[in-house]
């Protein structure tokens, strides 16, 4: 058995997002990417709706998305510097693989929208976990493009749907620092009765 998989709980207990700008080659190969995506969509899905869509972007499409972000940022900010515009152009190109996760909430179904959106969030988390189990690093971001209607339209996300996350995947250029985490005693309770 692969040493990484001999203690998957230990892997998840030590999982840490790596800042997208610190992700580099190599990224997952085609077989790993297929496994990662299959794991990503294996989430709770009340009503078997599949209320999510995933777009996998490699470098050429990332570059095109970067051009779209740069143009949109310039249109939104008349005073934007060339440095800021170039930063936006590079934003989607920070990692070998970019997966755009969007919702496909079916409001005609009786399943509450919040449950469908939580399923989308579970896809994002599964992609992060699958990445680290495969030996890669990842970061889940939204940032301003996720909330911009023109960017959503460019990505084919309808007005009434959500851009849930940009999942950046690659190899860590440097190990991430640990960050403070809440203690279990601060967030977990064991009620013996309810009022």
Q: Tell me the β content.
A: 15-25%
Mean pLDDT: 95
- Which geometry do the CA atoms define? globular
Instruction: Give the uncertain stretches in residue-range form.
Output: none
Q: What's the assembly state of these chains? A: single chain
According to DSSP, the number of beta strands is: 5
C-alpha termini separation: 49 Å
Rg measurement, Å:
19 Å
Outline the structure in words.
Strands 1, 2, 3, 4 and 5 form a five-stranded antiparallel β-sheet that branches. It is globular and about 60 Å long. The longest helix has 21 residues, at 113-133. It is an alpha+beta fold. The mean pLDDT is 95. It has helices spanning 8-13, 30-40, 59-76, 82-90, 113-133, 149-154, 184-187; strands at 23-24, 52-57, 97-103, 137-141, 163-172.
Structure described in brief:
By secondary structure, the chain is of the alpha+beta class. Helix content is 38%, strand content 15%. Strands 1, 2, 3, 4 and 5 form a five-stranded antiparallel sheet that branches.
């Amino acid at each position: 058995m692969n040493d990484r998989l001999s203690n998957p709980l230990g892997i998840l207990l030590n999982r840490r997002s790596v800042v997208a700008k610190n992700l580099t080659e190599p990224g997952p190969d085609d077989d790993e990417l297929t496994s990662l995506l299959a794991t990503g969509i294996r989430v709770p899905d009340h009503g078997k709706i599949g209320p999510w869509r995933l777009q996998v972007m490699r470098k050429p499409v990332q570059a095109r998305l970067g051009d779209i972000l740069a143009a949109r940022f310039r249109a939104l900010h008349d005073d934007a510097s060339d440095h800021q515009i170039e930063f936006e152009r590079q934003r989607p190109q920070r990692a070998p693989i970019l997966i755009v996760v969007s919702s496909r909430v079916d409001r005609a179904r009786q399943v509450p929208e919040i449950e469908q959106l939580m399923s989308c969030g579970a896809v994002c988390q599964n992609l992060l976990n699958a990445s680290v189990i495969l030996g890669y690093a990842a970061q889940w971001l939204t940032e301003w493009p996720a909330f911009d209607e023109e960017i959503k339209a460019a990505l084919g996300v309808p007005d009434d749907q959500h851009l849930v996350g940009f999942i950046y995947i690659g190899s860590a250029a440097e190990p991430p620092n640990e960050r403070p985490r809440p203690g279990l005693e601060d967030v977990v309770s064991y009620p013996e009765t309810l009022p």
